[in-house]
């Protein structure tokens, strides 16, 4: 996307006051490009990951193990956003944390590019760690470009920023996916490292346009807190090293020794976080009530993401083995399916924004609860739709690509109903004490959903079986209907939030 740099009449000292990026502070261009390249590397690698895991020329794993690894990786990315935000707030500050995160991500992709199983898993860990650090802090810096929450340009700035996410997500499977599938898997992973390297370079070159306080550590650790944190980290690291050394030396080590603890953490930690907030006696009655309502949204969102994120694993593995990946006789790489969602987001998001505004003017805009329930029903409907290509494949035929595109389309409409609403309701219902942490709590819903998928795969559940797909679809639809049926109760718990 080309920059639109013009003179701005903002007061001196405002970040980006001399030039603007589509009427916004110039620093938005830096963050836009950083996020675009980071998403380019992330989604490109993600599109290749399940295909590489099952490919005879790749890891050669079965579909269940590949789905488990993919799901654990995604759950870790979102699980690490909370410590990532803490690290930015207490240790380095947002700007330095994003620079470090970009370097860690780039190193992770380079490690993935090495032709070794051991380094491959280390690379996944590095990318997950870097993504968690970056995701939590780059959005904070976007907000710092504006004069507080009442700045009229703020919402538009975030809209432009999120376009960068979808641009990177759209182009990466077309480029990285093609190279990885058609030329060499490891060259594809290396291209992801190049993309992140470009993002880090332009971030460092353009950082002078960012808000000055993006370099400030908001709540620096005291000397005592640093010492305590280091001691605890060293203790847990030591326990893990000793435990895995014992398992390894005893000859009992398998991949599940890593996958099972990580998936359990992905389910347990979100529950513990919600329980801790809900039981906090510092919250007043209104905040307690809102948290009770929020748990409804959280559980429903976990069900949504459990199904939605299988678009990159279960659906991709099915497409690789059982779909006719061609249009009018022209064949395309399986990874290209991962570009369908971002291009639909870019096309449909403005339509939805206009539609809600038009309904609002007439006093007919659906409530948050109705939108949320509808998103769940749609993601369930997408898996009912999945039953058709599964049936075709069971009959010994290849399913048409149009079936998969229809599934992704249905999921994208569901995402547009649920995801923006979830982000909005999270900020509105957050207790004052946890205002800066609640966005990380929202991401834990993704963690819980993906970890559940991982646990099912580890347990040997074949997620491409029609019976299992039908059960997941039914679960989502029932959850959506339940949210709608109990909407009056949830609305009462929400208090003044609408």
Automatic annotation (TrEMBL):
Give the bilayer topology. Multi-pass membrane protein
Give UniProt keywords alphabetically: Cell membrane, Membrane, Transmembrane, Transmembrane helix, Transport
Ranges of Polar residues compositional bias? 1-14
Q: Where is this region: Disordered?
A: 1-21
Primary site of residence = membrane
| UniProt KW Ribosomal protein keyword | no
Which compartments is it annotated to reside in?
Answer: Cell membrane; Membrane
* Segments traversing the membrane: 43-61, 67-86, 98-114, 159-179, 185-205, 257-275, 295-319, 339-357, 369-388, 400-418, 439-461, 467-486
Is Electron transport there in the keyword field? no
CDD domains to which the protein is assigned, alphabetical? MFS_DtpA_like
PANTHER family, A to Z: PROTON-DEPENDENT OLIGOPEPTIDE FAMILY TRANSPORT PROTEIN, RESISTANCE PROTEIN MDTM, PUTATIVE-RELATED-RELATED
Q: Which family does it belong to?
A: Belongs to the major facilitator superfamily. Proton-dependent oligopeptide transporter (POT/PTR) (TC 2.A.17) family.
Q: What is this protein called?
A: MFS transporter
């Amino acid at each position: 996307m080309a920059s639109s740099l013009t003179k701005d009449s903002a007061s001196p000292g405002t970040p980006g006051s001399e030039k603007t990026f589509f009427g916004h502070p110039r620093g938005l261009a830096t963050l836009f490009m950083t996020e675009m390249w980071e998403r380019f590397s992330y989604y490109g690698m993600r599109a290749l990951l399940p295909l590489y895991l099952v490919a005879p020329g790749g890891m050669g794993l079965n579909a269940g193990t590949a789905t488990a690894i993919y799901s654990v990786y995604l759950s870790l990315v979102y699980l690490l956003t909370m410590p990532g935000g803490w690290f930015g707030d207490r240790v380095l500050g947002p700007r330095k944390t994003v620079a470090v995160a970009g370097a860690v991500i780039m190193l992770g992709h380079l490690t993935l590019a090495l032709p070794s199983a051991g380094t491959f898993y280390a690379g996944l860990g590095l990318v997950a760690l870097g993504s968690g650090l970056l995701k939590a802090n780059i959005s904070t810096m976007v907000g710092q470009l504006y004069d507080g929450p009442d700045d009229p340009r703020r919402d538009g700035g975030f809209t432009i920023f999120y376009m960068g996410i979808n641009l990177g997500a759209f182009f990466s499977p077309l480029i990285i996916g093609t190279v990885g599938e058609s030329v060499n898997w490891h060259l594809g992973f290396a291209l992801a490292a190049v993309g992140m390297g470009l993002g880090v370079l332009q971030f460092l070159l353009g950082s002078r346009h960012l808000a000055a306080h993006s370099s400030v550590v908001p709540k620096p650790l005291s000397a005592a807190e640093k010492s305590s944190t280091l001691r605890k980290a060293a203790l847990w690291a030591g326990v893990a090293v000793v435990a895995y050394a014992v398992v390894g030396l005893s000859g009992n080590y398998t991949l599940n020794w890593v996958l099972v603890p990580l998936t359990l953490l992905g389910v347990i930690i979100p529950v513990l976080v919600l329980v801790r907030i809900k039981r906090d006696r510092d919250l007043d009655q209104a905040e307690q009530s809102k948290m009770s309502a929020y748990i409804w949204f959280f559980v429903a969102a976990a069900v949504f993401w459990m199904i939605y994120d299988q678009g990159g694993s279960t659906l991709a593995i099915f497409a690789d083995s059982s779909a006719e990946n061609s249009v009018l006789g022209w064949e395309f790489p399986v990874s290209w399916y991962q570009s369908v969602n971002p291009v639909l987001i870019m096309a449909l998001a403005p339509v939805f924004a206009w539609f809600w505004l038009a309904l609002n003017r007439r006093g007919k805009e659906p409530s948050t609860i109705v939108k949320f329930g509808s998103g769940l029903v749609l993601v369930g409907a997408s898996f009912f739709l999945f039953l058709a290509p599964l049936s075709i494949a069971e009959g010994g035929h290849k399913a048409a690509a149009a079936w998969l595109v229809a599934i992704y389309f249905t999921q994208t409409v569901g995402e547009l109903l649920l995801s923006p609403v979830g982000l909005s309701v999270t900020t509105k219902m957050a207790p004052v004490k946890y205002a800066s942490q609640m966005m990380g709590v929202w991401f834990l819903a993704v963690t819980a959903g993906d970890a559940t998928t991982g646990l099912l795969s580890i347990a040997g559940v074949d997620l491409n079986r029609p019976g299992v797909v039908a059960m997941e679809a039914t679960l989502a639809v029932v959850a959506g209907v339940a949210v709608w049926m109990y909407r009056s109760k949830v609305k009462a718990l929400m208090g003044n939030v609408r």
